[in-house]
Structures are given as C-alpha cells and as structure tokens.
Amino acid sequence: MLTVVEKTPVSVEAKPVLRVEGLKAYYQMNYFGVRREVRAVDDVSLTIKRNEIYGIAGESSSGKSSLIKTIAGAITPPLRVVEGSVKFDFGGKELDVYAQRPAMKAARWKHLSYVMQGSMNVLNPVRKVKHAFHDFAFKHMGLSEGEFRAKVESHLQRIGLDPRVLESYPHQLSGGMRQRLTIGLATVCEPEFIIADEPTTALDVLVQQDVLALIKGVQQRMGSSIIFVTHDMTVHAAIADRIGIVYAGRLVEEGLTLDVFQRPQHPYTAHLIASLPRIGDTRKRVALGGKPPNLADPPSGCRFHPRCPLAIDKCKTDNPPLEARNNGRVACWRAGEMEAA
Amino acid sequence: MFKILRDLLRYNIEFAIGFILTLGVFLFALAHFWAPLPDTAIYLLPPDMPPSAEYWFGTTSRGQDVLWQMSAAIWNTMLFGLTVTIVSRLLAVAVGMISGYLGGKWDQVLMTINDTMIALPNLPILLLVYFVMRDSMSWPVLAMTAALLGWNYDARLIRSVTLSLRSREFTRHAVFAGMSVPQILVRQHLPYVMPVIFFTAMNNLIWAIGLEVTLSVLGFSDINRPTIGGMIYWANQHQAIIAGIWWWMAFPIIAVVLLFLGLFLLAISVNEYIDPRSRLSRMGA
Q1: N or C: where does chain B have the smaller number of CB atoms within 10 Å of the terminal CB?
Q2: DSSP structure class, residue B188
Q3: CATH number at residue A88
Q4: CA distance B153 to A158
Q5: Domain spans in chain B, listed from the N-terminal domain onward
Q6: Which distant-in-sequence residues (6+ apart) come within 8 Å of A154 by Cβ?
Q7: Interface membership of B172 toward A (CB under 8 Å)
Q8: A–B: how many Cβ contacts below 8 A?
Q9: Do A116 and B276 touch (CB under 8 A)?
Q10: Can you count the helices (H) and strands (E) in chain B?
Q11: What residues of A are in contact with residue B191 (Cβ under 8 Å)?
C-alpha cells in the first residue's frame, strides 16, 4: 500500500521552528563499577520549518524514539544529553530545551505537545476522559471552566468525536476512538509543534488511514509543524513532507519524501525502499545481511559499513559527514556512486 | 451521593446486606447515648438475670444491663477501630505513594523504616507501651500506638501499585504536560490506588478491632470503659461460663461478628463503585 500523495509546497520561512544542532544523547549506566554507554543519539543536526511534517524512519533499536524523546525534553536518566542543543522558536521567542528548563516547562502542551508511543494507553483507566483534558490542558489555556468545556467540545466535534465521550471511561471506547482522543488531547491547545512517536502503531490499516487524515487535517488547519517517528514507510509516504533516515543513532539521509522514495542516495535507504512490497511485483526480496549494530559498541567509521555492499576501506575508518547533495542531505562516502551501482 | 447509594442497593446484593447489617449495628451502638443508666455504673440492677421481657439480653454479675453495656461497648470499639484505620491509612498511603513514585533515596529510607516495622512483633510492643504508660493509658494513646504498628504491610502494597503506575504512559504524559508531583499523585494515581486503600482499610479495621478485643480480654486497657473485649474480660473475671451466665459472653460476640460481616460486605461492594469496570459490568451498561 504505497501511495505517494502530491504535497502542497511548504512555504519557506526565514526562521525554522525547530533547530537541533550536534545533538548527542547517551544512555550512561554505571552499575557495580562497570561503565556502559549506549550512544542512542549521535551527532544529529536537523531543522524543521513552520507548517512542515517531518518523518523519522529507521529500523527498531536505531534510536528513533530516543531522538524524539530528547527533542521533546522528556528524557530521564540513564538517558542524558552529552552535547549539542535543541532550540524551538515559538512566535519569535527562542527556547533552548536544555538550557531554559522552566520556560520550556511552561511552553509544553501550549506550544509543544507530544503523542507518545503506545498512546492508546495515555488515558488513565480509572478516570473519565474529561478529567484527562482538564489535567493536561486546562491550566495552559487560561480560560474559565465553562469556556474550556465549550472549547474542548467543539474541538472534539471537529476531529469527529461525539462530545459525550468526555463523560465515559477509556475502557468504554474503541481503540480508534482512544487514538483520536489522544490526538485531540495533544492538539486542543493548538500547539505550534507536535511530536508524535509511532502514532499509528497497533491500529489496523483503515483506522490508521483515518488517523493519518486526522493528523494531517489538524496540522493544516492550525499551521503547526509535526515531527513523527515510525518504522512504517507507507505512513511516511502518506503524510511526511520530508523524511530523515536514522541508522544506529545517526541521521544518514534526509530529503523530500518523493526524492527519498524515488532516488535514495544512501545505500541503507536504497535497501529500505527496495524492501517495500509493490503491487504486481513478484520479485523475491533479498534481506540485507547482518543485523543492526550494538550501540554500546558501534562499528568504527561509518556504522553501516559491515552490512554495506558498497563499503570501501575508507568507510571502515572515517565517519562520513552529513552533507548537502541533490536537494537533500546524505552521509555516505560513496553517495555519488550510488546511482551508478 | 444519594444516587450512588440507591444504585448500589439496587444492583449489588452484597452491598445491600452489608449496608443493613452495618447500619443496624451502628444504630444499636448509637442508642447508648440514650441509655437509662451511665455505662460505668455497677450494681444498680439485680445481677445474673437471664434474658427476659424486662432485661432483653439479661444482666451481668456486676448488676449491669447487657443490652446497654453492649451498645456502649460496640460504640467504643468501633471508635477505636476507625481511629486506628484512618491514621494508619494516612501513613500507608503517604509512605507507599511517595516511596513508589519518587523512588531513589526516598524509597530506600522509607522502605528501610517500613521493613524494620514489619519485623517488630506487635503484641509485645503494645504490652510494653501499656506497662510504661500504666495509669495514663487511655484509648487514644492505645489507638495511636496500634496505628503506628498497622500501616507497614499496606504501605508496601500501595508502593508496588504506584511503582507500576510510574512507568505508565498516562504518568509520562502528565509529567510532560507539566503536572507537579503532588498533582500527579493525587489526581492520577490516587483514584487507581483507592480500591487497594479501601480493601486494606477493611482488613485493618478488622485487625484493629481484633487487637482491641485481645488487649481488653487480657485486661491491658482501660477496663472501666465498656468495650467488647472489656465485657469478655469482666465475664471471665466473674467466671460467667462456669456460672452459666452465657448471655454475658454470647451477645457481645454475636454483635462483633455481625459488625465484621457487615463491614466486610460493605468493603468488597464499595470497591465496585470505585472501579468503574466492575461496576459497569454488574449493571450491564
């Protein structure tokens, strides 16, 4: 089910909403005298413009979730930021997630909201849905009780939910309704930036389609930016404006969705795209040899070299930088030779 | 509140029975405020009278009416039990939730205290307190001592529930949305912990009443104040069983059993109100 829809061109603005620079976040553990360091996010830099949907793709254990948690500022030890910065720009005011914690805390939910992994369970099972809205959003909106209730009800109606769900308990609702509610909860304050971690995992294809359309609709109406993570490439194809491919904690390729699908520049991306099923294609798909590297002891040089069919000696010793190429960015010594290969 | 009560009575037979039993015992205990004679007075009535139209439950060897003695005794015993339960619940909830949610150093310190308390035997400590306090021993002091000994198992239980809630998505969401620690504990976690609190409160109430009866039967309390255990203590002192004064012992024991039963049924059915899932499945909604 690979459908690349035509994207409305993103209006280019001078200042990006999110700027991540040289971000390094490691899980650092020190148990019984043994130090272990897992480099889950290693030197990631990216920017996200206003009104843009940015998808992060990669296989399991590649550090996608760690990256997104670090961007949200929702990390707890042992995951720590070692280097780099995450800066948001909300209405001209710049906020550094790790340097201005109190201001950041106040901005959360109002300007920056988060749809978490397993978000079907975001609602407290023993409290009515209306209490979740009240707990999470009320104090950020500065409205009276009555206005708040009216606002929540109209918001729910817009995302296709009966306001009566406010009076129910989560177990009385279906999975799709709960997912809608979670998105409703994340968007009720009309934030400028939404972070979504696997928002459609565990949903069937139809509900997934529905939820994606909902996210897209809300995003277009509010003009907010979204960064989302999923390993499901069809979801990326459906809603992302740009895609970043993460491998072993590093961003290896970034580009417009259509470019990434049609002209992947990094060998890993090429294999990822080639692995997708296509209607009418009966070719047997060859799996990439090896397995994702252990991030506690990553390979030297380019982290993909042990599995890369194009690897040369240089790949084993030197780490390729993420450089602009063909309208996107790619981190590969042999990026230019990819098309030829 | 009235609607909740009505629905519980209608849909839940355990609640209805428990409610009627507890209400009956409570009203009976309440009646001691209108007793014809003060409950500490002795030898004002003919002693050892069997149950009759004049003395429904008979009279004791000390010349007291068993009916009015029981009424006051149940009141005092319930008061003791409830005091212990409320104080020990407050301790258990506070320690359990703080320890489970904050973890780290808080957890280590609180659980060390908790485990030490678990290891201490209750009865010898209560006897020690009695012998140290001696004449200044009153029921509130005894209740406080019992409360300080009665929270630790439940604190561990509540800690384990909070520990599992800490890593749930709704907690992470609440933290991200900027809810403070007290807000998360009270609004997000407390409703979840509530059935545990109710059920342990029930066990604790039964334990406290049992403890009071044990101590009073042995005479380690204020023996002039009528309690269920105190009545049995005096019956033993006057060798009521050997003398055939069975009504002096039988009626207090029946009363306390009915009270236990009523409270137990009430507790298990109140859980159903608190846990929305079981409530709705019972009502067929």
Answers
A1: N
A2: I
A3: 3.40.50.300
A4: 49
A5: 2-283
A6: none
A7: yes
A8: 65
A9: no
A10: 14, 0
A11: 124, 126-127
User: How confident is the model at residue B84, as a pLDDT?
Assistant: 95
- Report CA dihedral (B11, B14, B16, B19) to the nearest 10 degrees: -140
pLDDT of residue A340: 46
Domain of residue A294: give its range: 253-337
Judge residue A241's burial from the number of C-beta atoms within 10 Å of its C-beta, 0-12 exposed, 13-18 middle, 19 or more buried. Answer: buried
Who's near A78: CB < 8 A, 6+ residues apart?
A27, A28, A29
pLDDT tens for the 341 residues of chain A, in order: 445 555 555 555 557 888 888 888 888 888 777 888 888 888 888 889 888 899 999 888 888 888 888 888 888 878 888 888 888 888 778 888 888 888 888 888 888 888 877 666 788 888 888 988 888 888 888 888 889 999 899 888 888 888 889 998 888 888 788 888 888 888 888 888 889 888 877 777 887 888 888 888 888 888 889 998 988 888 888 888 999 999 888 888 999 988 888 888 888 888 888 888 888 877 777 777 777 888 888 888 888 888 888 888 888 888 888 888 888 888 888 877 765 44
With CB atoms and an 8 Å threshold, state whether A121 touches B187.
no
As a whole number of angstroms, the distance between CA A193 and CA A91 comes to 11
Residues 173-212 of B with CB under 8 A from A: 173-179, 183, 187-188, 191-192, 194
Distance CA A330, CA A252 (A): 6
What pLDDT is recorded for position B36?
A: 85
d(C-alpha B187, C-alpha B193), whole Å: 11
Same domain, A193 and A124: yes
- CB of B105 within 8 Å of a chain A CB? The answer is no
List the single residue in B with minimal CA-CA distance to A121.
Answer: B169
Q: Are residues A31 and A171 in the same domain?
A: yes
* Short-list A119, A136, A91, CA closest to A228: A119
* Chain B residues close to A140, C-beta within 8 Å: 177-178
Please report which confidence band the pLDDT of residue B108 belongs to, taking 50, 70 and 90 as the band edges: very high
d(CA B215, CA B143): 12
CA dist B126 and B220 (Å) reads 9
> How much is the pLDDT for B278?
67
Whether B170 and chain A come into contact, CB under 8 Å, resolves to yes
Q: Please state, in angstroms and rounded to a whole number, the distance separating the CA atoms of residues A290 and A293.
A: 9
Angle at A183 between CA A178 and CA A186, to 5 degrees: 125
Query: What is the CATH number assigned to the segment(s) B2-283?
Result: 1.10.3720.10
Contacts of B179 in chain A (CB under 8 A): 135-136
* Interatomic CA distance for residues B71 and B259, integer angstroms: 12
H or E element at residue A330: strand A328-330
Both A26 and A147 in one domain: the answer is yes
Average pLDDT, chain B: 87
A246 belongs to a structural domain: no
Which amino acid does the sequence have at A180?
Answer: R
Task: Check residue A338 and give its pLDDT.
Answer: 63
- Across the range B165-180, mean pLDDT stands at 85
Please name the residue ranges forming H helices in chain A. Answer: 64-72, 101-107, 129-141, 145-158, 175-187, 205-222, 233-239, 257-262, 267-274, 313-317
The tokens describing A135, both together, are 């707990």
Residues in chain B with CB shorter than 8 Å from the CB of A135 are 174, 177, 179, 183, 187-188
